[in-house]
Write a structure and sequence with these properties.
Elements: E1 53-54, H1 57-62, E2 64-66, E3 72-75, E4 81-82, H2 87-90, E5 97-101, E6 114-116, H3 118-122, H4 126-139, E7 145-146, E8 150-155, E9 159-162, E10 166-169, E11 205-208, E12 213-216, E13 251-254, E14 259-262, E15 284-289, E16 292-297, E17 310-315, E18 324-326, E19 335-342, E20 346-355, E21 363-370, E22 378-380, H5 390-393, E23 400-404, E24 411-412, E25 417-426, E26 438-439, E27 441-443, E28 448-449, E29 455-456, E30 459-463, E31 471-472, E32 482-485, E33 496-497, E34 501-504, E35 508-513, E36 526-537, E37 549-565, E38 570-573, E39 579-581, E40 583-585, E41 596-605, E42 622-633, E43 644-649, E44 667-670, E45 675-676, E46 687-688, E47 692-693
């Protein structure tokens, strides 16, 4: 890993290095650790000469403050691990910070894991983002704080750190910004002005806005504040607005100071307009014509839509393929559904996703994204299901993950369809990820039972204009302000279920042709490498994760008019230092018996774990698998017809495979715990090596 001076960090860094660092000191971690730098023009680039703040373990246990732009070094006592982010940062996309995990090798290279916040990533241009991605893929991503390890934290804002709960935002009372835990914030810490020194609303006041504006609640001053429903400027009762500033029965009060009018009932048709025409209905326009009161319903008044809002939730038409979900990472989408609002804009307030037929013990939480967006709009956790009854929340073979959307995170415009994808955050191997665990997720059509014995549907929503909550689907053929699940028209609900997915502790992320010979090259003669395939393993989610190991490969060979010795096929790894023999098979899988082979056939390389080959693929790196054969005649056509030779890998993405065979899987591999016969498709189900032609 290169060491470059800070002045060299610019837009040209993409071609220079993955990460450039300045070592302020190469002393041991017990004194002054070397200080890493992110590449690129980030304002979080540390100053090489400044002194680090090394926090004591005992202080970190109780909570320490990381000041903005300070070098912060911290470690926690005892053993175990805990999440990187506390709840206040988990959904915060504005805090810019990054973290480095020391390995003890920093005098030579900064080879530890990094964590880069969403805000820091999004603040950079595309070139810098690409380098950040490369850095994270090369060094790995910090998925948890490990006690006993040393960490470096640089932030653009003050942050709180506590062993056991991770990084969190600091609630600063008096800054004029309302944060979680504050009832008000008027920009100061004075008391007796409505907002206290601890940012709570003082008795007798009502506070609104940001910064908060606080008014003393005084009934009779003509200003409607707090719990007052009216204030007519006096404390006289029986005039529509009572002495406690509550609207009296039979009256309607509007404006400020309040003007109150008596609501006069009528029996049948009103004979005249002498008593006024206000019928007390907020949604009617009242007028008088020819001494007759006219009441016209007006659906343009907010909350008075003539047609009720309905929500239709259906399975997306875009298929989600089977996933191999790597422990310690955020997996790709495992469930995708569509939401369509009818008649009115709709505010989705709750989403409850259920594991289908499994406990999903490997899943920490679910992240919800709009299609095309990279920032999750909500996180679904089991803890958020606190109002669901214990039996419904986690019973038998299922778990529920709930997301509460309090701040209009998912607004559905009327008449439009919004697509939502669900991605799982997987536990690291050391924290409970289960190799081979099968996962499916669903939006059940059946209702949930709450702790108060009432029932709700998997998705709850309200009319964004009126605030009226939509009802559960009653199953009939009419749409009367309801949430419909699994159907795009009024009728009974149906459960939306994902494809099956599987947990892996290591993952082969790609297979590519890596032969140096180009297509169209002449058919080789003698012992030659006729196919080279590069297997790449994904960066692991934690340091304790095992590496993938390949045990069986079946190659497809198309040798048109090319003759090879049937017993000459060898499999080698990378530099051809060692090899193992492979068998030739007819396309139906039966053994080949002749000495020379041509045409279409299979080459089976089995029991590689007991061979001399090292077929382990280190996480984050690649291994080349090379098929060799002795070509005895590059063109056996008696008429001089063209000859061609090509090796390919096929049949390795079929989820339902039960064995390796000609008609089943052509690949067997292990994540160190479980044997797998398939790979998640990475855009192709066939990988072809060089096409040789004569």
């Amino acid at each position: 890993m290169a060491f470059l001076p800070q002045k060299q960090l610019g837009l040209s860094f993409v071609a220079l290095a993955l990460i450039s660092v300045i070592a302020a000191s190469v002393q041991s971690l017990q004194q002054t650790p070397p200080i890493p730098l992110l590449p690129g023009p980030s304002p979080l680039l540390a100053q090489a000469g400044s002194s680090p703040v090394v926090h004591k373990k005992s202080d970190a246990q109780n909570g320490v403050l990381f000041k903005a732009h300070d070098h912060n070094m911290v470690s926690c006592p005892e053993s175990g691990s805990f999440p990187v982010l506390g709840s206040s940062l988990l959904t915060n996309n504005t805090a810019r910070f990054w973290i480095y995990e020391y390995t003890g090798n920093e005098a030579q290279a900064f080879d530890g894991r990094f964590y880069i916040s969403v805000a820091e990533f999004l603040a950079q241009n595309a070139d810098v983002q690409r380098v950040y991605n490369t850095l994270l893929q090369t060094n790995g991503i910090i998925t948890e704080f490990i006690r006993g390890m040393n960490y470096y934290i640089m932030s653009a804002t003050d942050l709180q750190f506590t062993c056991g709960s991770g990084l969190a935002m600091i609630i600063e009372c008096g800054d004029g910004i309302l944060q979680q835990g504050e009832q008000c914030d008027d920009g100061n810490v004075r008391k007796n002005d409505g907002c206290s020194a601890t940012c709570t609303v003082e008795e007798g006041f009502a506070c609104t806005g940001e910064p908060s504006v606080c008014r003393r609640v005084r009934c009779g001053d003509g200003i409607i504040v707090g719990s007052e429903t009216c204030d007519d400027g006096n404390l006289q009762p029986e005039d529509g607005c009572s002495e406690t500033c509550a609207t009296e029965n039979g009256w309607k009060c509007t404006s400020e100071p309040s003007v109150c009018e008596l609501l006069i009932p009528t029996l049948g048709e009103e004979a005249s307009c002498s008593g006024g025409c206000d019928d007390g209905n907020f949604c009617t326009r009242d007028s008088c014509s020819e001494d007759q009161c006219i009441h016209e319903f007006d659906d343009t008044i907010a909350g008075c839509a003539s047609a009720q809002a309905n929500l239709y939730v259906t399975q997306s038409s875009v298929p989600i393929r089977h996933r191999q979900l790597l422990s310690g990472t955020v997996g790709e989408s495992v469930l995708r559904f569509s939401l369509r609002a009818e008649n009115e804009d709709i505010d989705v307030t709750n989403i409850a996703i259920t594991s289908a037929g499994n406990r999903a013990e490997s899943v920490e939480h679910l992240e919800l994204y709009r299609v095309g967006e990279t920032i999750a709009f909500a996180f679904a956790t089991t803890d958020a299901c606190n109002n669901i009854s214990a039996e419904e929340k986690s019973s038998g073979p299922v778990r529920r993950f709930c997301a509460t959307l309090d701040n209009r995170e998912l607004i559905l415009p009327s008449g439009e369809t919004v697509e939502v994808v669900v991605r799982p955050r997987m536990y690291p191997h050391a924290q409970g990820a289960i190799s081979g665990e099968m996962l499916r997720f669903s939006l059940p059509g059946a209702a949930f039972v709450l702790q108060d014995s009432s029932t709700v549907s998997a998705i709850q929503a309200r009319d964004d204009q009126s605030g009226q909550f939509l009802a559960m689907n009653n199953g009939n053929a009419s749409a009367d302000g309801e949430v419909f699940i699994g159907t795009d028209a009024p009728g009974p609900n149906a459960t939306i279920v994902s494809e099956a997915h599987q947990v892996v502790l290591a993952k082969i992320s790609s297979i590519t042709n890596y032969h140096t010979d180009i297509d169209g090259a002449a058919v080789p003669t003698g012992l030659a490498a006729i196919g080279v395939f590069r297997f790449t393993a994904q960066v692991s989610g934690s340091e304790s994760s095992p590496n993938p190991i390949v045990d069986t490969i079946i190659f497809n060979v198309n040798a048109m008019n090319v003759a090879m010795r049937a017993d000459s096929f060898l499999l080698s790894i990378s530099r051809l230092l060692e090899n193992t023999s492979c068998s030739t098979l007819y396309p139906d899988g039966s053994p080949y018996t002749d000495d020379v082979i041509a045409g279409n056939f299979l080459v089976e390389c089995t029991d590689l774990l007991s061979s001399p080959l090292e077929t382990l693929i280190t996480n984050g790196s690649s291994t080349d698998f090379i098929l060799q054969a002795d070509v005895v005649n590059p063109n056996i056509s008696p008429s001089g017809s063209s000859a061609s030779l090509q090796v390919s890998l096929q049949n390795f993405t079929e989820f339902a495979s039960t064995d390796t065979a000609a008609s089943q899987s052509h690949l067997r591999w292990s994540d160190g715990n479980t044997t797998f016969l398939w790979l998640e498709s990475f855009g192709t189900d066939t990988v072809r090596s060089t096409l040789y032609q004569n």
